[in-house]
């Protein structure tokens, strides 16, 4: 069962590292969105140009475009303050999970990794825990034979119903 536990911890570390990376990607996407909004506001101001004193409609349009640019700049300022703190923490977290995953992967057998990847082709969460004599992937009870095999812990045990590796 030690190999199965290492496989679960490796899987969880990989998942948490991937989650941190997705969050970092979301921050980058938000920054790009703000840059696009800023360019659009600047373009509006440029298109309006300098209206004549008698052209009230364009003067109002210019003031609105300038206000929009100011709002985008304020959003960007707030975003950058928040991003600075969170991005650093996310990078640290991702690094820690990547290191933990690498440590766990180093002690796993080739067969365990092959089984994991084979199951992972069809199932999103290939490693699950056993609780109350049930697989936490499909939530169906395990047979007595499977429970005995799982308790012995000499080999990796898979669920008869969903095929996930049981820990």
The helicity comes to over 70%
Question: What is the helix tally?
Answer: 4
Q: Report, as a whole number of angstroms, the end-to-end distance.
A: 7 Å
Helix and strand succession?
HHHEEEHEE
Largest sheet: spatial strand order: 1-5-4
The coarse overall form would be elongated
Q: How much beta, percentage-wise?
A: 5-15%
* Number of strand segments: 5
- What would you call the structural class? mainly alpha
Q: Round the Cα radius of gyration to an integer and report it.
A: 27 Å
Mean pLDDT over the full residue set: 91
Q: Return residue spans where pLDDT drops below 50 for at least 5 consecutive residues.
A: none
**Biggest beta sheet summary:** 3 strands, mixed
Provide tags for this entry.
elongated, 71% helix, 167 residues, mainly alpha, three-stranded mixed beta sheet, two-stranded antiparallel sheet
In short:
By secondary structure, the protein is mainly alpha-helical.
Describe the fold and architecture.
By secondary structure, the chain is mainly α. It is built from four helices and five strands, in the order H-H-H-E-E-E-H-E-E. The strands form two sheets. Strands 1-5-4 form a three-stranded mixed sheet, with helices on both faces. It has a two-stranded antiparallel ribbon with strand order 2-3. Helix 1 (2-48) packs antiparallel against helix 2.
